[in-house]
Design brief:
Immunoglobulin-like; five-stranded antiparallel β-sheet; 11 strands; about 20% strand
């Protein structure tokens, strides 16, 4: 009984959450881990953040996967639960990790605690020893060569011979036929559909070496269409910068409602494949291809509603001239 009273009278520690990164600095696209450790009494059950709730909970980190929670007893009625997130980042200079909140539940009692925010340096892809543009070297004097004058004389003789041959053949050959009409210009929508049809014939997405070229081409054709059709610099912007460009009022009203979210999901998945070596299943690749087609079709429909294409000019039939004989 005395031991029980001492245990009950011992100090009760409140819930604490600690966030730890597996590295001190990263390069854009590197994979690393974020570990959340929750310290709490036995009677509480921690509820860690789910990546399905949105990446905004993790700041500049992109979540790739999450491990199952693990528990460890440290005595005195205290338990440590932890979960490991595999993450990457595409931030420039620094990646900010906000305070991450973990909820604890025990019967009808619910409480929460948050970790401290973290800042992770992101190193540049440009090497530190890269040198700038050097000054021009001084000019070196060379003696004047004779061969340019020889070539100039030969060129004049060839020009005279060519003109003489042209005038001679012109008298013999009939005039050339009129030039063919120019080929119709391909619209951004037609160009995107052509590239999508070529990608739809890809049947080897179950082979890892074919996955990355597939998503690189898919991202490039979608960005090219957005740049040519909407006038946004999609090829020169990161995914996050592009989504900010598309929220500008002059661009946003030209987009259908679900198009921005659909474009963000497609480009984020492509970034994970290109920079973090993520290999999604083959059926996800075909589904992403179909989502890309839907996004382009919906944007094209909205564009044509805002500014319909002008009708072709009418064909004017000329009546044959009547020549009266005198």
């Amino acid at each position: 009984m005395l031991v029980g009273l001492l245990l009950l009278a011992g100090p009760v520690r409140a819930q604490q959450v600690t966030a730890r990164l597996s590295t001190d600095s990263v390069t854009v696209g590197d994979r690393f881990t974020l570990t959340l450790v929750a310290e709490h009494p036995f009677r509480y059950t921690p509820l860690f953040p789910d990546p399905q709730d949105g990446d905004s909970l993790f700041g500049d980190l992109e979540i790739i996967s999450r491990s199952d929670p693990s528990a460890q007893s440290v005595g005195s009625g205290i338990q440590l639960d932890s979960v490991v997130y595999e993450v990457t980042t595409f931030a420039l200079d620094t990646a900010y990790v906000p305070a991450i909140r973990v909820h604890f539940s025990a019967d009808a009692d619910t409480t929460s605690a948050a970790s401290l925010p973290l800042i992770l340096p992101v190193t540049s892809l440009i090497p530190a020893d890269a040198q700038g543009i050097q000054d021009l070297a001084p000019l070196v004097e060379f003696p004047a060569p004779i061969w340019p004058y020889v070539l100039l004389g030969l060129a004049i003789l060839i020009l005279i011979a060519t003109i003489w041959y042209y005038l001679r053949e012109r008298r013999r050959t009939p005039p050339p036929p009129p030039p063919a009409p120019p080929e119709p210009e391909i619209t951004p929508y037609e160009a995107a559909m052509t590239r999508l049809r070529a990608l739809s014939e890809e049947e080897a997405l179950d082979q890892p070496e074919r996955v990355k070229p597939f998503y690189v081409e898919l991202s490039d054709l979608l960005r090219t269409y957005l740049e040519d059709r909407l006038g946004v610099p999609a090829l020169e912007r990161t995914t996050r910068e592009l989504m900010q460009e598309m929220e500008v009022r002059t661009v946003r009203y030209r987009l259908p409602g679900p198009a921005p979210n659909r474009i963000k999901e497609i480009l984020t998945l492509a970034d994970l494949v290109k920079f973090a070596d993520y290999v999604p299943p083959a059926e996800q690749g075909h589904q992403t291809l179909a989502e890309t087609r839907k996004a382009i079709d919906s944007i094209e429909t909205k564009q044509r509603q805002i500014a319909p294409e002008p009708p072709p000019p009418p064909v004017i039939e000329m009546e044959p001239a009547v020549v009266e004989k005198g």
